[in-house]
Design a protein that fits this description.
The complex is a heterodimer of chains A (288) and B (297). Chain A is α/β, with parallel strands linked by helices. Helices cover 42% and strands 22% of the residues of chain A. Chain A contains nine helices and twelve strands. In chain A, strands 1, 2, 3, 4, 5, 6, 7, 8, 9, 10, 11 and 12 form a twelve-stranded mixed β-sheet that branches. The two termini of chain A are 31 Å apart. With 297 residues, chain B is an alpha/beta fold. Chain B folds into two domains: 148 residues, 3-Layer(aba) Sandwich (Rossmann fold); 125 residues, Histidine kinase-like ATPase, C-terminal domain (Heat Shock Protein 90), CATH 3.30.565. Chain B is 33% helix and 25% strand. Chain B contains seven helices and twelve strands. Chain B has a seven-stranded mixed β-sheet with strand order 3-2-4-5-1-6-7. A five-stranded antiparallel β-sheet of chain B has the order 8-9-10-12-11, covered by helices on one side. In chain B, helix 4 links the parallel strand 4 and strand 5. In chain B, helix 1 crosses helix 2. Chain B is elongated. The chains are: A alpha/beta (288), B alpha/beta (297). Chains A and B meet through helix 9 of A and helix 6 and helix 7 of B.
Amino acid sequence: MTALLRPGREPSQHTLLVSDAVDQGRRGAASWVEQELSLGSKVYYKGWLPDGGRRDGHWLTGPSGPRGARDALTTGQLEFLDFPTLVERSGATSDGVLAVYRGEVERALDELWPTVAMTQESPELPMADDARLVSEYARWEAGFDDLTHRWPVRMLCQLCVAAESERAVWETVAVHHRDVVDGFWSATADDGHWQPRGDLDAHVARRFGAAVHGALRTAREGEHGPDLHLDLSGVDFMDVACAEILMLAARSAPVDQHVVLHGGPRFLRRLFDAVGRPPSVRESEDAP
Amino acid sequence: MTGGLVQPGLVHLGLLFDGPDDLVASALPTLRSALDGGDEILVAADRAVVRRLREAFGSEARRITFPPPTSLVRSTEPDFLAAVRGWVRPGRRTTVLGQYLPTMSARDCAFGEDAVGVVRSDLPLTLICCCRRDLHPDLVAVLERTHPQMATAIGVVDNPGHRAPATASPTPAALWGEVAARVGVDGLADLAALRRCVAAVAARAGLEGDAVRAAVLAVHEAAVLAVRRGEPDHAHLTLEVRAQPGQAVFSELTGPHGIPVRPGPSGDPLAHLRPFCARAAVHDEAERRAVRVLSTV
């Protein structure tokens, strides 16, 4: 979360906030909501209500939540929708989900809110055994991208690793590789370059691998593709586990797809060589 | 084994003997190999041994230096290690033969031998440590425990009696001076603090740029190994970092002894971190495990 609030960071459009534990995720989401409220955004919050289904029992809008969120719920700047109701309205299809979100954005703009902030808690979707659901999920997340491009919308998707299956974590991070914040590391995409930042270590190696997978998949389909241009200039630390995952992903890519390295210290190249750099990983002309 | 042969670092040999003829017969294959390889050779032995070696090597004995046996003895372990460091010559290997003296303390002797094995094993040295079988049994036991290989008349053989240095006190880590930084970690999510700690000490010790990055990576990987393979899964580890400014950073991770360390594809569980440090070793005891990493300036 700290990276989300770091001075100088451009306002995010569609960001995934990853947390290991429930409390950690709540702190990050609460900070984001508070910030959006202070910026004057209309905030739509979707989440799980505790037993009894009362909004004033929720951690954000209940007595123990931040004062600003409770007040905003009263004034109408913050609206809360619980997940069962969302599923009922949307049918858990991509078209249904997007229709709900689009309706909320249009209503907020009709009410002359300058910006719209939308966030949802970790959805606990049963992706493990449901390929159709994975496909629908990818489609509605792509629809969220479209929402943020067309209107003044900022979207924060929350992912609590402790609450999700491995498959759900993998698919969620892969879909959000263009803008993910996960503790000590984050990633963004800009002008055809994918840029991970911060500390990439064994603790986040699987999530980093998912993001690499998503970046490779998107690069194959994008206008700059099929090569993945990897900007390493923001990487402060990478360990053997993450280096191996990156090299393995590059080795597994189609034969016509390369990973092109930009920037970053020479030491990272030494690390890649130590774990086994395949021919599909090559240097750009601006390499150190 | 010596003079441009396979092992670039320390070769630490023990030699048990009954008398001068026995010692010379067991040392000859190693010394011959060292002479052929162009090593500098020091033999600090009693007069009977020196006489027999001069006879065995003939005119080539002029290439061997014969200081008195007491010249290898130092009053403290750090002084002893400094003397060991002083035997190193640029661009070539040095082979040193020395004898245990009857007046030596078994405890001090064990400490020095362990220290050489743990903290000086990156040096291009071949040490042949000789102990007469009729010395105090504790001294004989030290020689049998602290040497991974033995010099014999048929050449160098593995020593089944070798035991890696204990993690318990006295630990050779103390030779690197006071603990410059100590940090506790509880699992993989906690390793950023460990990395910052190593980076700060390494920079203060004089490591720069990629050398700092390598030291940090090596200790981080050692911690990953210790945390992941410990039991319970996310065991508490303590990192202690010591530094000798301008020379080295010595990091020691200790925690509960867990499931056995699994060897990697090469058979060495530390193979993935060795390219990034001068020396790494795992020491297991019944209750504790220690992983030690040495990074040099």
